[in-house]
């Protein structure tokens, strides 16, 4: 439940972003939120490797919005700030998300970088 509550600020980031790359969330759009806990929490080199990999995902067709960041530390009991890294992206449809997930670059980078460096990965896909 705490992890789900952590999703609220991430979704706010995705839906309120002022970037020209952040289209309004319309019917059928899907926000893809990925929370990552590193095997070596706080390791700067691992965070950089994940950040660089995530940036490569922008080249995959179908993504309408993309952002990334780290957990904002909080004393509030409803906030899960235990993750090390978050990726937030928006797709025009579930089909576009499915194509992204199956794209060879995504598959390769998940297998070669994300999974080896991560202790835990949690994904939330939210549709409108």
Automatic annotation (TrEMBL):
Keyword Signal included in the entry's annotation: yes
Keywords carried by this UniProt record: Signal
InterPro entries: Dabb (IPR013097), Dimeric_a/b-barrel (IPR011008)
Keyword Signal included in the entry's annotation: yes
UniProt-listed Pfam families: Dabb
Domain Stress-response A/B barrel: 30-126
Signal peptide annotation: 1-22
Origin superkingdom: Bacteria
Name recorded for this polypeptide: Dabb family protein
Organism: Luteolibacter ambystomatis
Lineage: Bacteria, Pseudomonadati, Verrucomicrobiota, Verrucomicrobiia, Verrucomicrobiales
């Amino acid at each position: 439940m705490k992890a789900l509550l952590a999703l609220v600020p991430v979704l706010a980031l995705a839906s309120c972003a002022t970037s020209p790359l952040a289209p309004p969330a319309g019917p059928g759009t899907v926000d893809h939120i990925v929370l990552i806990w590193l095997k070596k929490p706080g390791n700067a080199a691992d965070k950089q490797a994940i950040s660089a990999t995530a940036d490569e995902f922008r080249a995959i067709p179908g993504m309408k919005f993309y952002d990334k960041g780290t957990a904002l530390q909080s004393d509030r009991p409803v906030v899960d700030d235990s993750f090390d890294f978050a990726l937030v992206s928006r797709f025009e449809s579930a089909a576009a998300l499915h194509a992204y997930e199956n794209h060879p670059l995504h598959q390769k980078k998940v297998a070669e970088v994300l999974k080896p460096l991560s202790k835990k990965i949690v994904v939330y896909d939210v549709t409108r």
